[in-house]
Amino acid sequence: MSFKINGRDVNGYKESYLTDQYQEGRTWDHELRYIINKVISPNDVILECDAHVGSHTFQFSSKSKKVYALEAYNETYNFLFNNVSCLDNVVPINTAL
After folding, report:
1. Nearest to residue 71, comparing CAs of 89, 97, 90, 45?
2. At what angle do helices 74-84 and 55-63 cross, to 10 degrees?
3. Residue 35 · residue 62 · CB < 8 Å
4. Cβ contact 88:11 at 8 Å
5. pLDDT reported for residue 62
6. Residue 6: per-residue pLDDT
């Protein structure tokens, strides 16, 4: 199954809370989304530290070439991994800086 985030195809859809929210058009942090749309360009590579469960990762992914999403806490990383596994331009990493 696949769907779109900001007009970008997401292949290999894996059901998760975040993918369901995006598929239904629900987003949060509208101010941050506005900034992301203005600042990030399609060729950018993002290093997201403390990615938590990936809510901002989806937004970064929809606008950039690649996202490296770092999350140190093992249990939270598992949620992050599940939530972003459908995004082929995101690399979740279980580490801290």
Report:
1. 97
2. 40
3. no
4. yes
5. 87
6. 54
What pairing do the DSSP bridges indicate for beta strands 8-10 and 3-5? antiparallel
- Which run of H or E residues covers position 66? strand 66-70
The span from the CA of 34 to the CA of 23, in Å, is: 19
Length of the chain in terms of residues written:
97
Could you read off the pLDDT of 68-87 as tens digits, one per residue?
999 999 999 998 998 888 88
Whether the pLDDT of residue 60 is over 80: the answer is yes
Query: Could you identify the residue written with the tokens 């997401």?
Result: 10
Residue type, 29: D
Nearest CA-CA partner of 59 in 20, 82, 24, 87: 87
The model carries a pTM of 0.76
Please tell me whether residue 22 adopts helix, strand or coil conformation. Answer: helix
Sheet holding 90-93, edge to edge: 45-49, 66-70, 90-93
